[in-house]
Amino acid sequence: MDVTRKLEILADAAKYDASCASSGAARKDSRGSQGVGSTGGMGICHSYTPDGRCVSLMKVLLTNACLYDCHYCINRRSSNVTRARFTPDEVVQLTLDFYKRNYIEGLFLSSGIIRSADHTMELVIEVARKLREVHHFRGYIHLKTIPEASQDLIALAGRYADRISINVELPSQHSLNTLAPEKNLARTQQAMGHIRGKIDERHAEKRKPNTPKPPPFATGQSTQMLVGADASTDATILGCADQLYSAHRLRRVYYSAFSPIPEPSAILPLKAPPLIREHRLYQADWLLRFYDFKVEEIASPSSPNLDLALDPKLSWALQNRATFPVDVNRAPRELLLRVPGLGVRNVERLLAARRYTRLRLADLIRLRLQMKKILPFISTADHHPARLGLDSDSLRARFLPPPEQLEINFGAPPAPTPADFISARSGEL
Amino acid sequence: MRTVVIQPEYEAWRSAARQLLAQRVPPEDVLWADDAQESPLFMQEEPAQMAAPAAPPVKVPPAFLDLARSAAAHTDARRWAMLYRVLWRLTLGAERHLLSMPTDPDIRQLQDWCKAVGRDIHKMHAFVRFRLVSTHPATGREQFVAWFEPEHRIVRLATPFFEKRFAGMDWSILTPYECAHWDGTRLHFTAGVPRSSAPDEDAQDELWRTYYRSIFNPARVKISAMQSEMPKKYWKNLPEASLIADLIAGSSRRVQGMLETEERSVKPAPNNAYLQSLHALNQQQKSVTPDPGLP
Ligand code: SF4
After folding, report:
1. H or E stretch at A277
2. Within this chain, do residues A104 and A188 fall inside the same structural domain, yes or no?
3. Are residues A369 and A224 in the same domain?
4. pLDDT of residue A33
5. In chain A, positions 93-152, which contact chain B (CB-CB < 8 Å)?
6. Top mutation candidate among A16, A19, A62, A66 for ligand 1, by most atoms within 8 Å of CB
7. Chain B residues closer than 8 Å to A9 by CB
8. ipTM of the prediction
9. Confidence of residue A240 (pLDDT cuts 50, 70, 90)
10. Residues A289 and A367 in one domain
């Protein structure tokens, strides 16, 4: 099988992994070396495919042969896809060739599990080792690791990689038992804890005065959860994500709406979830991480699923009308962050500007805030919305997109949301 | 009223502005033009008139210099006058906190220009495509050439990134108004060239298209999301863009095909020692930690 055909199969097999970010790596570059590569700061999206996703890293599997039988996965052992396998040298060469042409930021390497976790990890690590040690490659490397692999191998992977990840895939063991019988949440969490320990350790070493620089280790880990393949509610999914963020300090949790695959399994739901659900989960995730929201505020036990028609912040605001209107000239930062339509960056701008002036509507218009959205929720020197307006039930109706427009919105770029301050530039949404 | 004609570059504006400020010339009294505009109405200022008298130097916040350097790369003809006006307000106008006033119309305008310039730089970092043209006979270094059409005058701001990233290869980035070259030791700039000076294809482009085709998921087409990040104006210089139309056209047929595929039944686990050890481990764990009963 030639490299073109292998690339076709092994890129196709990797496309269901949503993570492609190449940001957050330690700063390094190729000056003074014979090699190429640099990382640090925001990652770059070098292209976009018509699915709206950023192409940042060359995302491939080393092999799509797999012992496991995860039913949502095209590579599981009971699927009939054509199997292929790269040699480590082939992946190394492709990475370098693509990188030098500025097609990519680096490599995202994953693999089906062959023979054993350790054997598979060794092959994956070999690619990264060659890139770093033989070719002096300083670009981004993201390695997928396997929870059951030995700690020494995971540590070695972390030495070569900028980011390592283990996918939890589903938020409960119960779901895993049915859909991914070889996977285990406890072992995954254990491995994540171990990786966090390594990352923290290196961080502490680096800060010690008068000690030599410790060997490199990945600066972050991330994971992915599938949405819509099992019956988990958004509250369960976000609860799991929240727990992972706090227990293992993950950089990112990716949510990937389960989508039809060419080799469907008999025990999967027939219907893919609406893509908008995935989008709402990302918005909710943002609220947890940057806006000080708690999971229960966004997805409560009594209504455990996010409103698909409204973004989660707006939805929260409509259920907590007593908090509003918020006075933009006086309210503390935490409260401004709760205003629908106000992102982190604009809150900072308002805080800066109001030190010198009393904010009026014209100022907000000049900042190009989404006036229609924020007006009912704020007051300014010259604007005091009637409480009445806030209490009226028509407020929700006002924000609901007309039904046919909702359809169109599925295909539209993510509406400006709390996430708008991190533009899609970073390749993270 | 005096007219100041400068090279369309930040450094030229800065030295002219420094002299004007030293002479306490208010912004309303200056007409700015750069030679990119090539208007016969404008005359070069007499050097004698520009000579700086001994006025005490004024202090400028460093943040303004960054803002100015970036805004200066924008192609809007009003930028020189705007920069001078803001400089004046910040210093002699005693509005020292002006930069923290994002609601001020002048600041807003400068920030908008900076944002457009920043985006242009970012797109250049993303969409430049190097083509291998030769290997240096003496050094053995690979030599690459790329073509790019920036919207603003960003070549000097954007190329230090390429120097850091591609130190181990020789490269040139050609643009219509200025070209950058790296030979392993020095970054230098030459005048712009026409598109025809750059190579059209690279031997790897076909493999790259294979990757692009394979990584696309036909089940989640979002064309407008793609286009807002990768506007059509860039497509003509991206080797992969020629595939876009066909990928979109074929997507619904491919999804339909997947939905109509008969479901694969579950196969029994193969007789494999590693798998058996995993299943045993799972059984063990199950008896230790009771399932929380979540869905
Ligand atoms: S372990 Fe599961 S998810 Fe990973 S490749 Fe194998 S079948 Fe797919």
Report:
1. helix A275-290
2. yes
3. no
4. 85
5. 94, 97-98, 100-103, 115-117, 136, 139, 148
6. A66
7. 214
8. 0.90
9. very high
10. no
